[in-house]
Each structure stands twice: as structure tokens, then as C-alpha cells.
Write a structure and sequence with these properties.
The protein has 228 residues and is mainly alpha-helical. The protein is built from 12 helices and no strands.
């Protein structure tokens, strides 16, 4: 069971370098640099610059020359990692989606109690999006920019998260731990609440709410609604 955001952060030990190392290893067909340490170092620069420029001017307004100027890479150097902006957005989104799936599965796999399992899934998602808020925000806002094939993949992964929540709710109802409700509708509502955390961070900052409090609040709402 995940206690709070701080313990999750320490346990996951997530870093930009680790994220980009996995990104490199999963996309060696696209990234044409053979030396991993060089590729990873430059992927960190590319990702940081992309998120920074997207936040300032929007992804569509950002050019590859803008990206080169901000990251310090030449056009030729950049082309060793991506061929165009479609490759760039795919790299950024695909890793975020894979990391979300892996984290939620890892943290819920051995949890047996239905209440704990559902709350653990919520905490894992909220805490991960806190660690990677710029990445989550970018992935949500720019999904519409993906080519059709990658857009379908993005939608499928988003649906997978909702399906996990649905499955946990259904398991709880089957075990008699939850009352009988529309599990699909509640899973959709839960997913929307989790998304609100990384899409509207300023609102919750102004309220003085942190990630631990927000995840606990979602859990309390679910528990009250699902109580037999």
C-alpha cells in the first residue's frame, strides 16, 4: 500500500535520465545514436526543451529550429533522434503511456483487499502525474496532433487505465465489498478526477491541496459511494 506522495517518490526513484534511458531502449529503431549515454543525455535536452517551448508557445507554433536553439543541438544532431515533429510527439507520449501502465500494474498486482486495490491505483496515477506533470499535461493536450495510428494507440492506453479501474470496482462488487453500481460509469468519473489533478494544478495549489491529500480525497469519495 502506498502511504503518501513522498514515500512513492522515494520508492519509484524517478529521474529524467531514467525516463529517457528507457525511452531510448524502446525506440532504437528511431534513434540512430548507438552510444546510449550520449543518446540519453540529448534526449533529456530534447524532452525538456519540447515541454518548455510547448508551455510557452504551444506545440504547433514550435518549430524544429526553435527546438534546436533551445536545446543547443544542431538540425543535423536533432535528426539523429527524430525525423519530424510527429516523431517527437510520439516519443514523448508513448513513454508516458507505457510508464503509467507499468506503474499502476506494479503497485496493484499484489494487493488483495478491494478497497486498498482501488485506492492504490488512484494513488499510483495521481502521484506519478505529480512527478511528471508537464509530461502528462502535454500528452493529454497534444493527443489530437498524433497521426491516426498513434492516436488510436494513445486512446487505447487511456482506455486501459479506465478499464483497470473498472476491473477493480467490479472485483469489489463480486466479492460483496462494494455495493452494486454502474462500475463503468464510476470508473470514467474516477479517471476524470485523476486527470483534473494534472490539468488544473494551479486551482489545487491555490487551495493548498497536495498530491497526498488529493488522492486521499478521491479515495474517500469512492469509499463513501461504494460502501455496501
Amino acid at each position: 500500500m502506498i502511504a503518501d506522495f513522498e514515500s512513492f517518490q522515494a520508492e519509484l526513484s524517478l529521474s529524467k535520465v531514467e525516463i529517457c534511458r528507457e525511452l531510448y531502449r524502446q525506440n532504437t529503431d528511431l534513434v540512430r545514436i548507438k552510444k546510449e549515454h550520449v543518446a540519453v543525455r540529448n534526449l533529456v535536452r530534447i524532452v525538456d526543451s519540447t515541454l518548455r517551448l510547448t508551455s510557452a508557445k504551444g506545440f504547433h507554433a514550435m518549430s524544429l529550429r526553435d527546438l534546436c536553439a533551445d536545446s543547443g543541438l544542431s538540425i543535423g544532431g536533432l535528426y539523429a533522434y527524430i525525423r519530424n515533429k510527429e516523431d517527437l510527439i510520439y516519443l514523448i507520449q508513448s513513454h508516458g503511456f507505457l510508464l503509467t501502465r507499468r506503474t499502476m500494474l506494479d503497485y496493484t498486482r499484489d494487493v488483495r483487499d478491494p478497497h486498498e486495490k482501488l485506492l492504490t491505483a488512484v494513488k499510483a496515477h495521481v502521484y506519478l502525474s505529480e512527478l511528471m506533470q508537464p509530461w502528462f499535461y502535454f500528452s493529454f493536450m497534444e493527443a489530437k496532433s498524433l497521426p491516426d495510428r498513434h492516436k488510436k494507440e494513445a486512446i487505447a492506453v487511456e482506455q486501459e487505465v479506465e478499464n483497470m479501474l473498472y476491473g477493480f470496482i467490479q472485483e469489489g462488487m463480486d466479492a460483496g465489498a462494494f455495493r452494486q453500481i454502474d462500475a463503468r460509469l464510476l470508473a470514467s468519473l474516477c479517471k476524470a478526477m485523476m486527470q483534473d489533478w494534472y490539468l488544473k494544478r494551479r486551482k489545487y495549489n491555490n487551495q493548498g491541496v497536495d498530491a497526498t491529500q488529493y488522492a486521499a480525497f478521491i479515495g474517500s469519495v469512492l469509499d463513501r459511494y461504494l460502501a455496501p
